[in-house]
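Take a protein:
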Amino acid sequence: MRTVSFDFDSPEARFRVLINHEEQYSLWPADLEVPGGWTETGVCASKEECDKYLEATWTDMRPKSLRIALDGE
């Protein structure tokens, strides 16, 4: 079994912003392979920059299926 250690707090750390089919987002270390079920958004930056992107983009944290069920979106 392979284990990976990553310093999420390092100022040099680079992340990719990923999105899944429910339009939920995740930060992922830029040098690791994207896990199944997730797609790259095209954003690859420092944690601070990724956080700013998520703050502006992910305004409704409910999964897409729930938004559709409740709001008819």
